[in-house]
Each structure stands twice: as structure tokens, then as C-alpha cells.
Amino acid sequence: MHPLVIVGTGLGGYSVAREWRKLDKESPLVMVTADGGQFYSKPMLSNALATGKTPETLANAPAAQMAEQLHADIRTHTRLGVILPDTKGIELDGERVGYSRLVIAIGADPIRLPLAGDAADSVLSVNDLDDYARFRQVIAGRSRVAIMGAGLIGSEFANDLIASGYAVDVIDPAPHPLGRLLPSEAGRAMQRALGDAGVVWHLGRVVDRVDRAGEGYRLLLSDGSEVQADAVLSAIGLRPRTALAGAAGLMSERGIVVDRMLESSASDIYALGDCAQVAGLVLPFVMPIMHAARALAKTLAGDRTAVMYPPMPVVVKTPAWPTVVSPPPAEVEGEWEVDADASGVRALFREASGALRGFALSGEATADKNALTRELPPLLA
After folding, report:
1. Domain span(s) for CATH 3.50.50.60 in the chain
2. Alpha helices, DSSP H, located in the chain
3. In this structure, what are the phi and psi dihedrals at residue 359, rounded to the nearest 5 degrees?
4. What is the pLDDT of residues 318-351, one digit of tens each?
5. Distance, C-alpha 273 to centroid of its chain
6. DSSP string over 163-206
7. Candidates 2.30.38.10, 3.40.50.1000, 3.30.390.120, 3.90.940.10; correct CATH number of 322-375?
8. pLDDT above 70: percentage of residues in the chain
9. How high is the mean pLDDT of the chain?
10. pTM recorded for the entire structure
11. Distance between CA 250 and CA 144 in Å, rounded?
12. Side-chain half-sphere exposure of 34, counting CA atoms within 13 A
């Protein structure tokens, strides 16, 4: 009997395995990961420093302990080479392994912009626990960090570093932080609050080159200005890992295309998490992954279950200016209604009928999160 094979031991992979094991305690399970397979919360990486967490204490359980809990064969530091849908097999470092069902939960890669300069290859990104450990080693004993990107992760890292005593410069082409998530009033409020905490913003600009300057780096920005830093962190976004699925003939667009059963265009191959495009949606956040994992576990156990997405606000981990946002669906037309004062911002996105389709709250207005969430329709019913 071929095993269920799950490729990836991040939140998606381990969540599916855990939920499935509640329903099927006997069938064989193989899990494959390119890293060490530790179980940890990836979202905690962007606020670990100020909360006193180290790379070692962030890991809740090593792969061996997870293997015991899940009655699984977990193959660490092993790369998926080829997917063979016609023969229901995969190649792992040259070894062929058959599967009964295959779950792809391999996440996404950091987007890397082409940069000039003799230190372009020294720009860091944090996408997993190993990356974070390297980042902490680089900034240990240093004082100034430059962050490329003022989106969700860049803003969270900026807050974490400032709260931990570092000087922080943030560079982004948008006119305010979280430009893709927040209306301008809410974005400017975050800019002011984190600026008051010590973040130096360089908005409306991008980094053209990174050069070595003594023991640190000199960043040349698109307006000709320069930023000095001891470390450079790129946080400009993620790109779903679709190459292996595409090479195997699976349909891919912005992510691996799956239906509401999380099944791809090839039978018995499923995908979830940052690598997946679920019913047209790419949602690289915790709650969509958890809902997908629970639904997929039921399907894998024989009870075909479509994933349902309720409203799922995103809490931005910026204690200097608490913010929560439920972005309106991209296809919905409407307008933001904004009330803003020194205590916070309450922005509601309504379509022409007056129905609430999204919100952005900051400061004291975050207290309205639960009440407003109850007004929103589900993303997938």
C-alpha cells in the first residue's frame, strides 16, 4: 500500500498531517522537507526579537518528535526532484517513491529584485527558521538595519527591530506602509506611529544598488540618496513555488491551481498554503491555511469536503500601532469610508449597495474587529 505523501513541513503540511491523523490512525504517511523539519510558527519570526525568542526556542518540536506524534516517516534535508502523475510517484534525491495521494505544501520563495553593487548577494531574506537564524547572526552586535519593503512583513520586522534597540530604515516605492492592504489614511497613521518609535521611512523610492562600505553596506536609492546599514533585509513579497508542479503538467497561474477540494488538475494530487491558488484565491495567511488543512484532511480520509473561508481579518504585528485589516475582494467595486483621529483609524469598505466588504482598523479602533467581522460575508461559502 503506497503512503500518503506530504511534501513540506511548514504550517500547511504539518496541519494536514495532524488533522488527518485524527481521522486515520493507521495508513502510512511519508513527509518530505528540504529543511530540518522542526515544527515552529513561521508568523512568529517577524516579532521574535522583541519577545525574547531565539531561533532555538522558536522550534516547538524537532522532526523526530513530530515523526513519533504522527506515526510518520519524515525525511529531512530531502528535495523533491520530479512529480510523476501518470505513475503516481515522485523522485527524492534520485529515489522513486510511490504515493496513494500527494499533498504539495512547499510554500513560496522570497521575491528577489535585480540589484547592482558588489554586496547585492549579501541582502538577506527570512522565509524559514534557518533564514531567521542567519539573520540573527548577522545583526548580533550591530546597530542599524535597512529593510527593503514596507508591506506586512517589512513593517512587522521594522517594529520588532526598533523595539529591540536597533535603528531601522525602510525603503518602499509606495507612498505609505502596507500600500496593498491599507487605505491611505490608515497607512499614513502607521507611518507616523512607527516613525515616532524610530523608523526612518524612505517612501516613493527603491534600492538601485547595494555596495560594501567598511564592515557595513551603502544603499543607493532611486532618487540618488543613500542609506547606511549594518545589514540589509529584503521583505518585498513572496512568489508561490510552482515550477515542479508546472513541470509535471499541473495547471498553475499565480499558484498551483486547485479547486475547493484542494485537488489539482491531476487526480490524487492536492496543494495548500502559500504555493496554492484555491478557487482563484491566493491567501498566504494563517487562517486560510488552517481552514484548508481541516477540509483536506477530511477529503483524504474519505469524506470529500470543500474548503470554506469565513471572513478572516489579518492582525498586523506592530505593537507600536495596532492594526487589523480585512481586505475587500479584488473584484468588488466600492469606496472606503474613513474616520481618523489621534486615537486611531476606522476605515470601512462598502460596495454600492452599502454592504460591508472589508475594513481596516488601527489604534483604539481595533476594538471593533469582532463586530465588523460578523457583518462580512464569507470569502468562500
Report:
1. 4-109+238-300, 112-234
2. 11-23, 55-58, 63-70, 129-139, 152-163, 184-197, 243-247, 286-300, 369-375
3. -155, 160
4. 999 999 999 999 889 999 999 999 999 999 999 9
5. 9
6. HTT-EEEEEESSSSSSTTTS-HHHHHHHHHHHHHHTPEEEET--
7. 3.30.390.120
8. 100
9. 96
10. 0.95
11. 44
12. 11
**The dihedral sign for the CA sequence 328, 314, 323, 188:** negative
Residues forming beta bridges with residue 98, ordered by sequence position? 89
Positions of CATH 3.30.390.120 in the chain: 322-375
> What homologous superfamily does CATH list for 112-234?
FAD/NAD(P)-binding domain (3.50.50.60)
* pLDDT tens-place string over residues 271-302: 999 999 999 999 989 999 999 999 999 999 99
Pairing of strands 231-234, 101-104: unpaired
Residues 96-142 have pLDDT tens digits of 999 999 999 999 999 998 999 999 999 999 999 999 999 999 999 99
Q: Which three cell numbers stand for residue 306?
A: 470543500
Dist CA 312 CA 152 (whole Å): 16
Residue 46 CB neighbour total at 10 angstroms = 23
Q: Are strands 344-351 and 334-341 parallel, antiparallel or unpaired?
A: antiparallel
Contact 30, 7 (CB under 8 A): no
Q: What is the CATH number of domain 4-109+238-300?
A: 3.50.50.60
CB-based burial, 221-237: b 16+ in 10 Å, e otherwise: beeeeebebbbbbbbbb
Among 68, 69, 82, CA closest to 7: 82
Q: Is 318 left (phi over 0), alpha (psi -120 to 50) or beta?
A: beta
Length in residues, the chain: 381
Q: Which three cell numbers stand for residue 99?
A: 504515493
